[in-house]
Amino acid sequence: MNFKKILLAVDASDNAMRAVEYVGNMAGNCPGFEVQLLCIERLPHRDLYPDEEEWKGSCEKARAEMKSFLDMARDQLVEMNVPGTAITQQYMSSCISPFQDNVVLCSRGTSVAQEILDALKAGGFGTVVIGRRGVSKAEEFLFGSVSNKIIHSAKNCTVWVVS
Amino acid sequence: MNTDLTDLVRYYLPKFPTQRIGRLVTDTTDFTSIDYGDVIGLGGKHYMVLRDEVERRFGLEDFKFWVKRCKCLETGEAAILKLVFNEEFTQKLGPSTIRSFRSAAKEARILDLVKDDPRFMHGFSLHDEAGNLVRVLEVIRGKRMDTVIDTLPGNHLEYFEDNMRDMLGLFISGCEAIGFLHAHGERHGDIRRDHLWVEGGTGVMRWIDFDYAYESHANPFALDLFGLGNSLLFVVGKQIYTPFTIQDMDGADAVVPNDYSLIFKNRMVNLRRLFPYIPDALNTVLMHFAASSEVYYESVNEFLEDLRPCLELLPKT
Predict the structure, then answer these.
(1) What gap in Å lies between CA B287 and CA B185, rounded to an integer?
(2) Which of B120, B158, B200, B270 is the Cys-Cys partner for B259 at CB 3.0 to 4.6 Å?
(3) B293 to chain A: which residues are within 8 Å by CB?
(4) What percent of chain B is modeled with pLDDT above 90?
(5) Interval B224-280: pLDDT, tens
């Protein structure tokens, strides 16, 4: 296991940016680290909108926000002295989107945690990093907690959870 | 008055008072204006509007102005017409809120999915002349599951000995139906014990009302599971217990805050405190929904894997 090979899972939240900064602090100026930024697209559900147009508009906005965050995260890492050549970005589109995405791998949206774990295994990463919202038990029950699921299910790797 | 419409109503419903015959409605957008005596024209058929449907909750009547109880003139059959009401709202569950939406498209999709499955209400959907997706639903003859249980005679011990096994068996079949939805990527969205009906004659459990959609990514089926947990609580308890209702009961002195629901802090979940004859395994399933729980069900399959064996632990009649 190469713990210096890091999978940094982000969405467009403040918690995710804290995780980015943490990785920057740990890996900046240290040789040998590789960081892959992974953003799994989470689009609003079609059923929550009265028509296609409104849904599509909302999805476009969400996608732009997430892609922009990925770029910002990369810039942040570079600013914290992680070499640009050591950083890669992966944006996993949603399988259920209004766009005509021509992708091999897409997110089914049923378990973000599982999709992060799949990426972890497929990429041979030694460390997975994720931000944590800090939810109550009731919220965890109703809305789930990606970080908790990863803590419970990740194997053969280091897990950094940044609160 | 529209003469053709009057003739049509007179032909099919000769006893309907002529002076009460209203308009022929082919655009249902303004559903609040559609009233008793109006006739909705849809898909070549005509539906006489008899009244708005009413939901009774907590002793109050809540009129659903977008849901019309009708009679199809051509077939003579009762039907419920659900008109498009693009309502966005926030569901409050204990301390948490969930953004929700009333989706005609979702319900229409599920109606199509379950059209041959007796565990759900049946119906079909059609667009009216303005493009509104109207759902035409059958009327289920039967009783709400909670009403059936509530009206069973006797105290809890008698219910436990005589009826709980049958009721739990029926409830499990209802849970399996929800598992079927989830396996097809759908969610019921509004699982409550009054949305599960026991059909008269067949005794089959049938789910109604699946138009609620909600936003949830990390745990997409949690809200449905929460509803199943609440419903199970009623099936096992024969009623819902609160600090007020248990105050004079045996075992109440030992109740602690962690015995209550994770979400509804006044809803007693640890029923073995009150009824020690409830099998431990069954109580353990309930306790997944308690404030003390550290582990939650994430799928109906997980829930049923624990619940099914409990049937054998209940008295046979």
Answers:
(1) 27
(2) B270
(3) 137, 141
(4) 86
(5) 999 999 999 999 999 999 999 999 999 999 999 999 999 999 999 999 999 999 999
Distances (CA, A) of A56 to A45, A98, B93: 10, 6, 29
Which residues of A fall within a CB distance of 8 Å from B184? none
How far is CA B78 from each of CA A162, B55, B123, B197, rounded to the nearest angstrom? Answer: 58, 18, 12, 18
Using CA atoms, how far apart are residues A63 and B204, in angstroms rounded to an integer? 45
The predicted structure's pLDDT at residue B58:
64
Residues B241-247: contacts with CB within 8 Å, 24+ apart? B241/B267, B241/B268, B241/B271, B241/B274, B242/B266, B242/B267, B242/B268, B243/B268, B246/B274
Q: How many residues does chain A have?
A: 163
Q: Are the beta carbons of B79 and B47 closer than 8 angstroms?
A: yes
For the entire predicted model, the pTM comes to: 0.87
What b/e readout covers B55-92, taking b as 16+ CB neighbours within 10 angstroms?
eeeeeeeeebebbbbbbbbeeeeebbbbbbeeeeeeee
Minimum distance, in Å, between the CA of residue B29 and any CA atom of chain A: 13
Side-chain half-sphere exposure of B20, counting CA atoms within 13 A: 12
Tell me the pLDDT band of B39, cut-offs 50, 70 and 90.
Answer: very high
Q: How far is A7 from chain B (nearest CA, A)?
A: 19
Contact residues, chain B, for A111 at CB < 8 Å? 218
Tokens 């509804």 found at: B264
Predicted complex: ipTM over 0.90 = no
> Residue A116: which of A162, A93, A16, A107 has the closest Cα?
A107
Nearest CA in chain B to A40: B217
Are the beta carbons of B114 and B226 closer than 8 angstroms? no
In this structure, what are the phi and psi dihedrals at residue B290, rounded to the nearest 5 degrees? -95, 165
Judge whether B45 and B27 are in contact, CB under 8 Å: no
Residues ≥6 apart with Cβ < 8 Å to B260:
B266, B267, B268, B269, B270, B290, B291
> How many CA atoms does the CB half-sphere of A116 hold within 13 Å?
34
Q: In what order do the strands lie in the sheet with B24-25?
A: B24-25, B39-42, B45-57, B60-72, B78-82, B133-137, B123-127
pLDDT band at A104 (very low <50, low <70, confident <90, very high): confident
Distance from CA of A149 to the nearest CA of B (A): 9
